[in-house]
Amino acid sequence: MSNEMFCPVCGTTAAPKSHTPGSILIEAFLWCCMIIPGLLYSLWRVSARRKVCKHCGNAHLIPAGSPRAQQLQQGARAR
User: What does the DSSP 8-state code read for residue 59?
Assistant: First the structure.
């Protein structure tokens, strides 16, 4: 089974990349200063991680083999 996803925004079909919000520098600073804020920030960053399009960063991806993705790809080719 392929892990490729289709991006309806830019039309890219590829494996998504993982995006973690926030900053590693802020996380390191919070860990150095205080344990509890550092822990909370780290937990937030990990829980908010998501897969995004490699090309445009869109988080609303659909499986490349789905009927909707195939319909959008055919519509793009017809233009």
Answer: S
> CB under 8 Å to 32, separation ≥6 — which residues?
38
d(CA 18, CA 54): 9
> Would you give the DSSP letter of residue 38?
H
The whole-model pTM stands at: 0.73
Q: Give me 34's structure tokens.
A: 């205080």
For residue 9, what is the DSSP state?
T
d(CA 37, CA 24): 14
Pairing of strands 62-63, 17-19: unpaired
Domain boundaries, the chain: 5-78
Residue with tokens 């319909």: 71
- In this prediction, residue 78 carries a pLDDT of 60
